[in-house]
């Protein structure tokens, strides 16, 4: 009994000691501080064909917003090829800077230069599908955000989205005057300039104009006199938008764009030669026995430690040119707060003059005894598309 009484006294004393500070803290506690401003702003996306909060969207998605795009000076999709977006891979075709290979989670087209090949990742601008990879490196015109949807998206986006979808959303006219101008210069004789103007509204109409120029000189000099270098590009584009809002529940937005992308292929640089130590036959030999390797031409430079600034052989070279034009009309009608009916009507036109000359003294037919130049192929490609989509 004595031990039980002692234990009860200890429990009562402990309870009293715990209760006393609680009362004191309750009397001296400071007023609660509103910490809401420290939270993250909501990010609104249209990955599910309607506006939703990013955190509430049931899709694996990465978003690059307008501020991040401006801070990183993103002027074409190639500027997103730095690995900053997990799972997204963007690369140029060797001979065609404007034909991009875009992959998500390892789903990458085999040959972006083949217009007959379908993509595994769908590319959309304001909901309009871009059916071919040609012209994807064209200058971007005032992008509000880039949404990278990872994994199959066939349910909402249809075919050619096995790997995912890349959705670009442009900034719309606001009806309030504003202007943003950007200019810069860099190495390789590069320079760029942008101009974005939002005009004051006139009645129910708002207008917006965007223009961009992005130029880069040769990455590798062509030693053939009078010929253009390798890895050059000259991208220019302009876009006009107008938005009509006659009532609170109806909006019509029309946009038209024109762009030109001139570029030359990259230089094919030999980084290594015969790492396995195979027997070498003379360069002039007409046959190469099994297990042997042909010797290099005296013109060939093997350079694996740095980029060559001058080609080891000069070749005829000229610009490849992509002319892209398009227009689209977006209609939105809200008969009730819970229902929106949308229509997207679009037409796009792509003209390509393709000149491929991937130079390099080690490439056939240069490596042949009588070879003087690498291959020189000319091709034309024209694509026209019309699309109509209704959403509710």
Explain the overall architecture.
The longest helix is centred in the first third of the chain and has 27 residues, at 2-28. Strand 17 (320-336) and strand 18 form a beta hairpin. It is elongated and about 80 Å long. The protein has an 8-stranded antiparallel beta sheet with strand order 10-11-12-13-14-17-18-19, with no helix packed on it. It has a 5-stranded mixed beta sheet with strand order 3-8-9-6-7. Strands 1-2 form a two-stranded antiparallel sheet. It contains 3 helices and 19 strands. The chain has a single domain (44-269, 307-391), classed as Beta Barrel (Maltoporin, Chain A), CATH 2.40.170.20. With 392 residues, the protein is mainly beta. Helices cover 9% and strands 42% of the residues.
Structural domain count: 1
Order of helices and strands: HEEEHEEEEEHEEEEEEEEEEE
CATH classification, class level: Mainly Beta
| Strand proportion | 35-45%
Report how far the terminal alpha carbons are from each other: 79 Å
Largest sheet: 8 strands, antiparallel
């Amino acid at each position: 009994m004595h031990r039980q009484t002692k234990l009860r006294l200890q429990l009562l004393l402990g309870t009293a000691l715990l209760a006393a500070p609680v009362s004191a803290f309750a009397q001296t506690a400071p007023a609660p501080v509103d910490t809401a401003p420290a939270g993250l702003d909501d990010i609104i996306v249209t990955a599910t064909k309607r506006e939703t909060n990013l955190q509430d969207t049931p899709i694996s998605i990465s978003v690059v917003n307008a501020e991040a795009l401006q801070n990183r000076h993103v002027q074409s999709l190639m500027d997103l090829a730095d690995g900053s977006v997990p799972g997204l891979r963007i690369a140029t075709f060797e001979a065609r800077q404007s034909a991009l290979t875009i992959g998500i989670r390892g789903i990458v087209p085999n040959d972006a230069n083949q217009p007959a090949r379908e993509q595994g990742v769908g590319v959309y601008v304001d909901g309009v599908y871009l059916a071919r990879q040609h012209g994807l490196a064209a200058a971007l015109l005032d992008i509000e955000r880039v949404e990278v949807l990872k994994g199959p998206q066939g349910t909402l986006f249809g075919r050619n989205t096995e790997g995912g979808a890349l959705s670009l959303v442009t900034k719309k006219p606001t009806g309030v005057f504003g202007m943003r101008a950007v200019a810069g210069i860099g190495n390789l004789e590069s320079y760029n300039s942008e101009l974005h103007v939002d005009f004051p509204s006139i009645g129910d109409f708002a207008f917006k104009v965007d223009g961009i120029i992005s130029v880069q000189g040769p990455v590798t000099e062509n030693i053939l006199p009078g010929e253009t270098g390798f890895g050059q590009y000259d991208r220019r584009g302009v876009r006009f938008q107008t938005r009509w809002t006659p009532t609170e529940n109806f909006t019509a937005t029309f946009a038209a764009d024109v762009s030109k992308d001139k570029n030359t292929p990259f230089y094919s640089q030999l980084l290594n030669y015969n790492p396995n130590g195979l027997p070498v036959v003379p360069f002039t030999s007409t046959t190469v026995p099994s297990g042997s390797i042909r010797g290099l031409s005296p013109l060939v430079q093997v350079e694996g430690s740095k980029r060559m600034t001058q080609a080891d052989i000069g070749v005829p070279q000229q610009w490849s040119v992509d002319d892209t034009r398009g227009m689209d009309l977006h209609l939105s009608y809200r008969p009730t707060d819970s229902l929106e009916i949308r229509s997207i009507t679009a037409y796009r036109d792509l003209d390509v003059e393709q000149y491929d000359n991937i130079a390099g003294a080690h490439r056939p037919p240069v490596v042949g005894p009588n070879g003087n130049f690498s291959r020189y192929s000319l091709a034309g490609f024209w694509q026209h598309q019309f699309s109509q989509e209704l959403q509710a």
